Structures are given as C-alpha cells and as structure tokens.
Amino acid sequence: MSVVAVIPARGGSKQVPRKNLMPIGGVPLVARAIAAARATAQIDRVIVSTDSAEIAELAREHGAEVIDRPAELSGDTASSEAALLHALSLVDADVLVFLQATSPFIDPAALGRAIERVQHGDEDVVFSAFETYAFLWAASSTGAVGVNHDAAVRPRRQDREPHFHETGAFYVMRADGFREAKHRFFGRVGIEPVEERTAIEIDSAEQAQLAEAIARLVDLPAEIDVDAVVTDFDGVHTDDTAEIDHKGNERVSINRGDGMGVRLLREAGVPVLILSTEQHPVVLARAEKLRVEAQHGVGDKAVALTEWAAARGIPLERVAYVGNDINDLGCLSIVGWPIAVPGSHPSVLSAARIVLGHRGGAGAVRELAERVLRARTKENHSNG
C-alpha cells in the first residue's frame, strides 16, 4: 500500500505572519514536519502543498516534493480538505497522511503506529490526541454548565474515564474513503495517543513562544544531524580562563579529547570552523594543530558565519553552533542547532536548543562530535 504524506503550508497567515516558516528550536515549522515524515519508515513520499515560492524552496531543500497550490485554494477560507483533495488528484495513494506544520513536535513513532493501524484495516482514520481528565465547562446565559461531568459529583481522577484532546498534528486515513467523504473523519475512527508535552499547536504568537521555550525539553536528541560544526573558542575549546605571565603573555588549557573529536569530524567529512571575537594567535595555532578553519578578531560573528556557510553551500538550518557568551547570540539565532555549554550566560542558555553535558575545555567539543557522528552513522545505516 502506497503511503503519501501531505503537508499543506500556505504562505499567508494573518494572526502569525509567515507562520509556517517560523523557526522553533532553530528549525522552521515546515522543515520540522518534513523531518518527522521522513523519519517515519512507513511513509513513501512526502509532499508539501503551498502557494509560496519561499516555502517551496525550503521544502525541496529538506527533501520534500512540492505541489503548487492554485490561487482558489490559497485564501484564508480555503480548507485543509480542499488542499488534500487537490494533492490526491495529482498523486496516487492508498493511505493519506495529513500533517500540520503548525504542530512542531510530531512523534514519528506514534505516526508510524497510526499508519499501520490503517494499513491493517483496523480503522479507516486514526488521529493524534492526548489523554485528559480535565473537567470541561461551557458558558451559558444561566451560568457555567459542566460538559463532560456532573457538577454535583467530583470523582477522583482514578475513578474517572479519560477523554482525548485532538492535537491536530496528524491524521492518517484511507485515501479512497477520504476522496468519497471529502472530510478527514469517516468510517471507523481511531485515536493514537501522544504525549501531552508534544501536543502544542501554534495558532498565536504566545503559543509560538511556548513552543520555543519547551523545544529543548521535547527534542532532547541523542544525535545532532548537521552538515557543519562551528564553535566559539574561549569557553568552548577552553574553560574560559587564561594564565598571564609577567610579560602579559596568555596561556590557555585545552582538552586532548576535544582534539580527537575534531579529528573524527574532519575524517568524516564534516566541515569545522572556529569563530572567535578575540584576536589572539592561540586561536589560529589551535586551529592549525586541529587542521580546521578559523577566523579570529571577528566583529560580527553572525555575518561571518552566514558568509562562510553560503560559500560552501550549507544551509544554516544544517549548521550546529556552540557558544557560551552574549557575543554568540547572533550565531545561535540563525542556525538550526544552537548549542550551549554548561555555565554559559543565561541568555545563551535560553537561546540554545540543547545544552551539552560537558563544560567548555572539559570534553564539550568531543561530546558534540560524537552526537554528530552518531547521526551520520544512523543515516548511513538507514540508507544502506
């Protein structure tokens, strides 16, 4: 059975401008949805339906096919069902997977289970929802009224049956049934439970802020899938301290394990750049020893990083940057993997997608290298 994932993603959004391109944890929402689909083994094709040239370009960069959505299906009143039916008129599918980019934390494992339930004929439609025991109320002219409970009876949680809150993240359905019903709920409908912490759906600026705040807790990746690694020097390759002799010469300490980590990255073909605001010969000396590129005495590190990545054809979404202080904030804001070391400035910790377990100068670079290499090894195995 052919399984096709379709991600409708309009370019226009009044409440949250450019919503589908908004980065959460450094990764645009559309790219997150594509990554979740591509990480789901049961999905054969990933398609983005859009009216935006910018979204189309981003989608192709992240490995999705693109369907150009006609103008009559691109306005504020156009339904998701209309976009899905248009996509199905152009592609063959036995199982349709409808993913919403506004749900940044789609779980590929849960999505895969939902697909298998439809493939096996257990249900015609399976959607994501989280279990809730909340008491729901509705306002009326005579006062609040209990919806899913008797207001006069307050049973304990363990004595109540749960309800399920639809997340909007994914809907898996028989394609022929959807074509006939023209609606996402038909026939036998099943629920695929997901964790509540992954269930946020972004329809407002406040929800986007919340998603950004919890991204580091939800993502928690053991692997860091990137095409390049860029690091600060002081506080990352060193412990951010220096010894000064009577002539004013500075000495810093480095970690040999970090050096091995850089070597392993280099041998795996991962470009590495050391980017430092400080102009000091030790930066170039260390880079030369590691046989990687370095720029020091840099005024605007974000500009330097952007130019370096562009010259190598590496999308910033595919770059990991590791920093520890406020002069790293510009770089952290533009890459797909903003990373901090323990003990960093609070604003850096807030901007980071993840915080490494090892401190600067004490194995942080080696830890980063191992996570990057694990991702590449995993990808190679899946391709093989």
What characteristics describe this protein?
384 residues; alpha/beta; Spore Coat Polysaccharide Biosynthesis Protein SpsA, Chain A; Rossmann fold; 2 domains; seven-stranded mixed beta sheet; 33% helix; 21% strand
Would you mind describing this structure in some detail?
It is a single chain. The protein starts with a strand and ends with a helix. The strands form five sheets. The protein has a seven-stranded mixed sheet with strand order 5-4-1-6-10-7-11, with helices on both faces. It contains twelve helices and 19 strands. The longest helix has 20 residues, at 364-383. With 384 residues, the protein is α/β, with parallel strands linked by helices. The protein has helices spanning 29-38, 53-61, 80-88, 108-119, 175-181, 205-219, 256-267, 281-290, 301-311, 329-332, 346-351, 364-383, and strands spanning 3-8, 23-24, 27-28, 45-50, 65-68, 95-99, 125-132, 137-138, 145-146, 163-174, 189-193, 228-231, 243-244, 250-251, 272-275, 293-295, 319-323, 337-340, 354-355. The model has no long low-confidence stretch (mean pLDDT 89). Strand 8 and strand 9 form a beta hairpin. The chain folds into two domains: 3-216, Spore Coat Polysaccharide Biosynthesis Protein SpsA, Chain A, CATH 3.90.550.10; 228-383, Rossmann fold, CATH 3.40.50.
